[in-house]
Specification:
Blueprint (H helix, E strand, L loop, with lengths): L4 E5 L4 H12 L3 E8 L3 H6 L5 H13 L3 E5 L1 H17 L6 H20 L4 E3 L4 E6 L2 E6 L16 H5 L1 E2 L7 H10 L21 H7 L8 E4 L5 E5 L22 E6 L4 E5 L5 E12 L9 E6 L7 E7 L5 E10 L6 E6 L2 E11 L1
Helix pairs in contact: 1-3, 1-7, 4-5
Length: 355
């Protein structure tokens, strides 16, 4: 029987590099590929932008495997950067990793791999896959400290059937030790920043430089709609924020809502940031079975949040209402709400609004 052919999505970091090495050890026929998300012009202006590709090539060379580069810069701009900017301009706070995983890694990258004759792809995500008579299941990683299932809720049965997650049963320190022992150059490379296409993590500056948006001052209002100050532009604020408001109020004030339509930012006390329900759109259920009646889940409303018991209720037009057993803080439009049943990810969607 021939070896299973796997194309590893190599980002130039330690996790995907270790994933490639582990699969080689396990007897797979392994090759690597890196998505080039920068245009040639951008790389010419700043050669450091090619670091991920160069590091991945070096690791592939060390491991003795073939390495490919997929120029997906145009598609990345359309599928990840454009929605990211558009959301901020509409008063939302997006998670671009969710866009990227759905459309790029487990969309275009997987399609290319299958077209090239590979049986499946692999990534360095900290999550696990299990299979039984009901199909494929996405499972929480073995360690809470590095679980990435929150950004993987858009998985489908087709994707899980063609995906390997070699590092999901290990923790980060274990991965670094393994990579060092394997002679992988990036064994101690720092983890990448939160937003890969915003090199200095200044997303507001990035939006100003990559869109037609210019900061327009507007009103800070309290929860009763009374004007209490002036904000510097809506892209600088997100729900739950306390620091960096630019105005002193004599007592802590928190962002409760960003109203792009009226160019207002609502401020309130900490208790005003809590909600008992939300409306979710673009909801995906990994099993492919969309519930027609209410289901009980544990829900997370942001990557680092603790899960909260909740009820997910189908509404009209593909929307779902999520009602929490206890109030949750800073429900933020544009972020994702992800549904769990124990360690299994059932699905999730984009938060449209708090209810």
């Amino acid at each position: 029987m021939s070896k299973k052919k796997v194309l590893v999505a190599m980002s130039g970091g330690v996790d995907s590099s270790a994933a490639a090495a582990l699969l080689l050890e396990q007897g797979y026929e392994v090759a690597g590929a890196t998505m080039q998300i920068w245009s040639a012009d951008e790389i010419n202006k700043n050669p450091q932008l090619n670091e991920a590709v160069n590091d991945a090539k070096a690791v592939a060379n060390t491991l003795g495997i073939e390495h490919h580069v997929f120029d997906l810069s145009e598609q990345f701009g359309q599928n990840v950067i454009a929605p990211f900017i558009n959301d901020y301009l509409n008063g939302r706070t997006p998670n671009p990793c969710v866009f990227c995983n759905k459309t790029m890694k487990f969309g275009l990258f997987l399609d290319k791999a299958l077209e090239m004759g590979f049986d499946c792809i692999a990534t360095g995500h900290y999550a696990r896959i299990e299979k039984d008579e009901k199909g494929y299941h996405l499972i929480h990683s073995a360690f809470d400290s590095k679980d990435q299932t929150y950004v993987l809720y858009n998985m489908t049965q087709h994707v899980l059937e063609h995906l390997l997650l070699p590092v999901g049963g290990m923790d980060k320190s274990e991965i670094r030790k393994y990579a060092e022992k394997a002679g992988i150059e990036v064994a101690n490379k720092p983890d990448s920043q939160e937003i890969c296409f915003v090199p200095d993590d200044d997303y507001a500056k990035y939006i100003l430089e990559h869109s037609n948006y210019t900061d327009k001052k507007g009103n800070f209002v309290d929860v009763n709609g009374e004007v209490i100050g002036e904000h510097m532009g809506i892209i600088h604020y997100t729900v739950g924020q306390r620091k960096g408001l630019g105005v002193a109020f004599g007592e802590p004030r928190y962002v409760v809502e960003v109203d792009a339509e009226n160019n207002r930012v609502m401020l309130g006390k900490n208790e005003d940031t809590f909600s008992t329900s939300l409306i979710a759109e673009k909801v995906n259920f990994i099993s492919g079975n969309i519930p027609s009646t209410a289901i009980t889940v544990e829900a997370k409303i942001r990557y680092g949040a603790k899960s909260t018991k909740a009820t997910v209720i189908p509404e009209e037009n593909g929307l779902f209402r999520v009602e929490f057993n206890t109030p949750v803080r800073a429900v933020t439009a544009g972020q994702s709400v992800v549904f769990y049943n124990g360690d299994e990810v059932i699905g999730g969607g984009i938060i449209a609004r708090r209810n």
